[in-house]
Amino acid sequence: MVGFLIALISGALMSVQGVFNTQVTKASGIWSASAFVQFTALIVCLGAWFVTERSSLLRVFSVQPRYMLLGGAIGAFITYTVIRSMDALGPAKAVMLIVVAQLAVAYLIELFGWFGVEKQPWEWRKAIGMAVAIIGIIVFKWK
After folding, report:
1. What confidence score (pLDDT) does residue 67 get?
2. Region 32-54: what's the mean pLDDT?
3. Which stretch of DSSP H or E encloses residue 93?
4. Residues 82, 11 contacting (CB under 8 angstroms)
5. What is the Cα–Cα distance from 36 to 43, expressed in whole angstroms?
6. Per-residue pLDDT for 142 more than 80?
7. Nearest to 85 by CA among 71, 74, 99
């Protein structure tokens, strides 16, 4: 239940953040806004680390495989693409497409066991759920 609530909060925060970042971009530029977003995230994370755990910051470099360290770089492009999509489509349409893309890629990662994730078997109910989500986008966009 806790994981479910945290996921709901995450989704809500991502939508609000996307709107905020889109407005900041209008006042500055896409990369300066993205840099500010990432910098403020760094400050918050360092503060939370200092208050809660204080494990060695250098331990992150012990991760294997090393390409897993690219999460932050991917985060910069996530910020960029969220801002651009919200500006072009509006928050509701952009978030619907983003969530369906996340769902589809996450299912493929599980299905094929990519990136060290435990491989999961094919399930029709998950494929049907994805189809329902895509149909939802079509209905949402229908004029």
Report:
1. 92
2. 92
3. helix 91-112
4. no
5. 11
6. no
7. 99
* Cβ neighbours around 85 below 10 Å, total: 19
| Torsional sign, CA 72, 77, 82, 83 | positive
Q: Can you give the residue ranges of every domain in the chain?
A: 1-89, 90-143
Is residue 114 within 8 A of residue 65, CB to CB? The reply is no
| Residues 29, 7: Cα–Cα separation, whole Å | 30
SS3 assignment, position 131? helix
pTM: 0.82
Report which secondary-structure segment, H or E, holds 22: helix 2-27
pLDDT in tens, 101-135: 999 999 999 999 999 999 999 999 999 998 998 89
Q: Specify the residue for token string 């998950």.
A: 126
The Cα-based distances of 81 to 31, 46, 119, 123 in angstroms read 11, 25, 28, 30
Structure tokens at 72: 């932050």
